[in-house]
Amino acid sequence: MQLETFQRHMVTHTGGASYKCKDCGKTFSSLASLQIHEKAHTGEKPYKCKHCGKTYRYHQTLQIHERIHTGEKSYECKKCSKAFSCPSSLRIHERTHNGKKPYECKQCGKTFRYYPSFQTHERVHTGEKPYECKPCGKTFSSNIGFQIHERNHTGEKPYECQKCSKAFSCPSSFRKHERTHTGEKPYECKECGKALRALASLRVHMITHTGVGPYKCKQCEKAFISPSSFRIHQRSHTGEKPYECKQCGKTFRYYPSFQKHERTHTGEKPYECKECGRAFSCSTLLRQHERTHTGEKLYECEQCGKACRDYTSLETHIRIHTGEKPYECKQCGKAFRCYQSFRRHERNHTGEKPYECKKCSKAFRCPSYLRTHERTHTREKPYECKQCGKAYRGYSSLQTHERTHKGEKPYACKECGKAFRWYQSFRRHERTHTGEKPYECKECGKAFSHPTSFRRHEKTHRVEPFECKQRGKDFSWPSSLHVKTPTRNKL
């Protein structure tokens, strides 16, 4: 053994260290170790990759990086033959076989396989969030979470699927997506044997057996598997809406909802149907639309056997049987089965019409009304009846039409049992029992049970009536101008 190597080794026993860093006071057993450490203060990265130009502080790190380009994986696992580009990655992988978790939290006793995971966990107790996003000020407890978040601003999606070219901003989402092609479900429940594609899905599933989640809400006792899910849930109690639209000032509780809303201003529709080319602002709407082509209806009602294309539609449908109406208007007390109907109704009070046609500037209360209206310009009628070939602009119109073939009358009055084909007819009938008159004239206060009667009445208050040029008589609405007055037969 060389003298210098022997002296450096002896320091590990004696604790002596002859080389001290002037910046932080840390001591080292050799000059070479001190020089490598000093680069952490100077920011110097002298080792550059010839393939991509990326620079590194240490030569060893560069060597490991270069294997990404060469594809070299010299370190193989004896258990499963999986290969790795560096020995540390192999050692970490081996823990998945031996179950070893060397890092234990002193606060709660939880153990971890990987040191970065252990460090991130410790911040749950300390509340430390050292990584701050400069564009929006949001802070993160882990560097990985911070990097993934930054891509929301940059739009970077470095992980691309080789099967369908779909790109992702984080590796976990990419891996999860790949399994939709391979059909792989690597996470199996030990209780019932159910296999799942994602670890998060397994954790959620396990709560059905244990009834316990590590993060419990003090307000409602609901349990959650992750701190992020728990924090998002807390907003339902606090009313916090941290995401604000710069265009209109509207605030949102959830980031995906905020992103979806922003597209109403930008007009961006990144999700396109391969069958008909129709584009959508969010992936959920695309998936729902795709089922109009495939005819697939995954969700079936246990009460009546009706099948629905998505789970939300099934939930809403079930409320027809239960009579549940969880969404209540604070202005007039009217309750609704589905959230969309509730939001649409609220706009009756506020007068808000956020969806505007680019062709004629006509505005609408909800996006579906706008889409149906836009087809009056394009003359598109994408919904065709399989029985008679008649085509419609809106899907709801097709559904209503199909009932004429089936003889279906899904809306039954609880008071007298009378059934109706159309919901509007059903609601109009209900008012004969309740005496409800929801359409009130702002001019004179007179109320009406039907919107047509209400609109006709409103015209009686017009300042300028419709004048007949032949007879000089005034009328309240234009349709009366076209009615022919019968003439008496002359004797």
UniProtKB/TrEMBL annotation:
One Gene Ontology MF term: DNA-binding transcription factor activity
Stated name of the protein: Zinc finger protein 14-like
The organism of origin for this protein: Tursiops truncatus (Atlantic bottle-nosed dolphin)
Keywords: DNA-binding, Metal-binding, Nucleus, Repeat, Transcription, Transcription regulation, Zinc, Zinc-finger
Family: Belongs to the krueppel C2H2-type zinc-finger protein family.
Protein location: Nucleus
Example of a GO cellular component annotation carried by this entry: nucleus
Gene Ontology process terms (BP): negative regulation of transcription by RNA polymerase II
C2H2-type domain span: 1-18, 19-46, 47-74, 75-102, 103-130, 131-158, 159-186, 187-214, 215-242, 243-270, 271-298, 299-326, 327-354, 355-382, 383-410, 411-438, 439-466
Range of the intact protein held here: 180 to 670 of 670
